[in-house]
Design brief:
73 residues, mainly alpha, 3 helices, 0% strand, Mobile element protein
Length: 73
């Protein structure tokens, strides 16, 4: 059997991905620069966006409400 994969990102890679997120890099570019899978970077960026949305909603005193910047279908 193959070796078991590591399940968590190191703190170093998390910090690097966060820096790339803050600078506006795409998840794919950040993945290449940080040496992680593109799906891992995309999931990490998604989680960062969810945390930011949650914190903004908590600060405003409103319930969790998501508004998308595009008009409907």
């Amino acid at each position: 059997m193959g070796s078991m994969r590591k399940r968590r990102l190191s703190h170093y890679k998390q910090d690097r991905l966060t820096e790339h997120f803050a600078s506006g890099s795409t998840a794919r570019t950040a993945a290449i620069l940080c040496g992680v899978d593109r799906k891992t970077a995309a999931f990490y960026f998604l989680r960062l966006r969810e945390i930011i949305a949650y914190e903004l909603a908590a600060q405003s005193g409103a319930g969790f409400h998501c508004v998308f910047p595009f008009s409907g279908m």
